[in-house]
Amino acid sequence: MADIKSTAAPAPVYDEKADNRDVDTSSIHKDGSFSDVHDLDAVLEGSEGVTQRDLDTYRHVADKLPLSAWLVAFAEFAERWTYYGTTNLYSNYIRASLPPGSRTGAVPIADRAGGVAGALGQGQQKAFALRTFNSFWVYVTPWVGAILADTKWGRYKTIMVFSVVCLAGHIILVGSATPSALENQELSVGLLALSILVMGLGAGAIKANVSPLIAEQYTGRLRKEVLPSGETVIYTPALTIQTIYLYFYAAVNCGSAGAISASFLARDHGYWVAFLVPTAIFALVPLVMAAGKKTYVVTPPRGSILLETIRVMRMAMAPAWSINPRHTIRTIKGKGFWDVAKPSYYPEGQVPAHITWDDEFVGEVARTCNACAVFLFLPVFWLCYSQVDGNLATMASAMRLDGTPNDLIQNLNPISILIFIPIMDKLIYPTLRRYKINFSPIKRIFTGFLVAGIAMMYAGVLQHFLFQKSPCHDNEPSACTTADDKPLPANISVWVVSGPYMLVGLSEVFASITSLEYAYTKAPKRMKSVVMAFSQFQVAFSSALNFAFTELNKEEMFGWLFGTFGILSVVTGCIFLWTFWDLDQRESALNVIGTGKREGFEGEDPSMTTTPTSLVKSSGGA
């Protein structure tokens, strides 16, 4: 698979260990690249008549997306509308009490200019705890869907089953917000907790499978085509996968932006109505998935390989274990770390009986571990993101609303993403490729860390000014009221808080979208859902880590919280780039491992087989 950020393929690098053929070393340049006329004109394996010379000569572009990919994107759009149409309201729903005279949480007409909807009156810290648990649970349960999909049901059936589960959770949530339930707060809180558990199970299981399912809809190969303008271009699968995930994420954020109506519904009509609308929209998910069943490319379950994966890792780790941690780390980083787990490592006839795999599978496990190591840094990024649907909304409620619901502002996050995605896809990324600047996944994720850190520093400075301007200063500005319980905000327009929301949105374009793309391209075929689940598990880990900052999640400590997260994000981003710089340089090679035909991959197209030789000779190809 191509280096996903390079339009003109980089000069291939000769690797004598990977290439067993005779190569005229006189053609090898000082930088390690080579030029062999015969190889340049040979058709690359897995392509449709494309040569290395073609890759070096013509512009690389993304292919058209199939209808089935757009259907999956629509299903994700509807699912995300319902997710954000409910979770965006949790802060006010849990934290604030019923407005005076309200039985549904709606704000009386006379008070809507500055009033805040509310229902359960549990306070800021309980609201933080329930929101954080919800985020934790939604990103733990992808493991359930991933394992079931990869071993039993396949991705399509898993999505269908858990969409019904998720719909049941939405119905329970609507019940928690009915006027009769709100009269008994204990009952309402209990139903809310149950709905979080049920919806989280359904949404998480769907989440692990819908991301790889949309990429699987594209089955095109590297090919050359003449456009109506007369220009010859190379349609590159790797660039197409990048485009798929850009627009998949756009569908996610269209759904999130579509939930803007939820804030007005809650304020004007109450929470049961606000929760009922997403429930009705979610009913479209199984309908759309069922309607397009005949058009989907459906990957069957390939059986459990988790046990084999653990055995490979255990064999590779055996020589590395030492009471000296430096020895352990040095061995793990060594070039031959995985060799002991390969059948080829042993003399013929002396391969241990428990080795039931081939060398290619060991390469798949190694690539999976590389990808998962990259994801281990993401919890810090998600700590910054977690402020979007929680503490920033609380900050906004302490400002001058001028008729704008405070939880409406957070929709600037998805709106900004919808603006940034086409700019990046149609302008920034093509320009970088034109000048042969390789803005690879590792570099993009690093940039995401930096932008998220800047967003948090912005929020910290803004919180400082909010404390100065609020009549209550740092004594819970969001709860500052007059003697007759009317809101008493700081004289700062709520739209000033749009800065952190938009910056976090930009950081997601770099880090979050790229993590989806990285999880798909680096995961072996039989482990795509599991690797995707591991990627998303970092959000759950971030939510658990967030509990360590409970003391900073008090409103009077928000400035310290935002500042801490901002500095932590920038520092982590720098460590991330330093740690994976070598991995970044091997981007193309990692994309190729595991794309060939292996034993047990029944029904796989043999023409997609990729050999080590084709890796050396076509580092810019498919």
Automatic annotation (TrEMBL):
State the InterPro entries in the record: MFS_trans_sf (IPR036259), POT_fam (IPR000109)
Question: What would you give as a GO molecular function for this chain, any one?
Answer: transmembrane transporter activity
GO CC, sorted alphabetically, is: membrane
List the residue ranges of the region (Disordered): 1-30, 601-622
Basic and acidic residues bias: start-end ranges: 14-30
Q: Where is the composition biased (Polar residues)?
A: 607-622
- Entries under SUPFAM superfamilies matching the protein: MFS general substrate transporter
Question: Keywords of this protein's UniProt record, alphabetized?
Answer: Membrane, Transmembrane, Transmembrane helix
Q: Which residues form a coiled coil?
A: none
Gene3D superfamilies per UniProt: MFS general substrate transporter like domains
Give the highest taxon in the source lineage: Eukaryota
Q: Which Pfam families match?
A: PTR2
Q: Give the similarity note.
A: Belongs to the major facilitator superfamily. Proton-dependent oligopeptide transporter (POT/PTR) (TC 2.A.17) family.
Q: What is this protein called?
A: Peptide transporter PTR2B
Species assigned in the record: Pterulicium gracile
The opening ranks of the lineage are: Eukaryota, Fungi, Dikarya, Basidiomycota, Agaricomycotina
